[in-house]
Amino acid sequence: MNPAVFRSRCRRLVAVACGSALLAVSSAVAPTSVAIADDAPTTGVVVCTTTSTWTYSPGVVLVPRPVVTQVDDRYTSCLSPTGSSVTGGSSSFTVERDAGCLEPVAAVPETRVITWDDGRTSTFSYTVTVSSLPGLDVVTKTGTITAGAFAGRAAQATQAAPTLDPLQCLGQGVQRQTALGTFAIL
Q1: What's the first-to-final CA gap in the chain, in angstroms?
Q2: Closest to 73 measured CA to CA, from 124, 1, 144, 149
Q3: Distance (Å, rounded) from C-alpha 131 to C-alpha 66?
Q4: Does the bond joining 41 to the residue before it have cis omega, within 30 degrees of 0?
Q5: In the chain, where do the E strands start and end?
Q6: What is the pLDDT of residues 73-120, one digit of tens each?
């Protein structure tokens, strides 16, 4: 896929995802929202842009085979209408599962620890789903912050990555992929 077309599609998807996240955020902090328990954090709403890099070993080929994926995520430009001091963060972890270019990833549970720029951490437990659109795979991670900063709050990441080119799946396969998107703690 032409890199300029990919960037344009990703920007549109990120804009839609950000708009949806901000709508959800504004609904969550409106005076008519559900009451928060006294011991829950009062500065819990955060929306960030994300960049994910997935490195595959061995490379992803046409048919599914065991693959180790190193996931490196960067959370940037974080905003909080409720006053959180978080402006960015990162997480890195490894996932082992079968993967192939011709078969989407099944909905699977995962857990990651996000390290925020203010030194705190959040454990995000979620289920991953992948939806394919022409030229793009949309990766959605829906779950809950189960420990650390913002514990007990719902969270969702939505990212877009170019669909794997079947020709690149021949030989050594696809060894690296990048996605752009949003992450929201509600």
Answers
A1: 34
A2: 124
A3: 21
A4: no
A5: 46-60, 65-79, 89-99, 108-116, 121-133, 136-148, 154-162, 174-185
A6: 999 999 988 888 899 999 999 988 888 887 766 677 889 999 999 999
Task: Name which of 135, 178, 142, 134 is nearest 158 in CA terms.
Answer: 142
pTM: 0.73
- Single-letter residue type at 8: S
Residue listed under structure tokens 């079947």: 166
pLDDT in tens, 8-54: 444 444 444 434 333 333 333 333 223 333 334 444 589 999 999 99
State whether residue 67 is helix, strand or coil: strand
| One-character DSSP codes across 122-171 | EEEEEEEEEEEETTEEEEEEEEEEEEETTTT-EEEEEEEEEPPPGGGGST
Contact assessment for residue 155 and residue 143, using Cβ atoms and an 8 Å cutoff: yes
C-beta of residue 21 within 8 angstroms of C-beta of residue 147: no
At residue 151, what are phi and psi to the nearest 5 degrees?
-55, 140
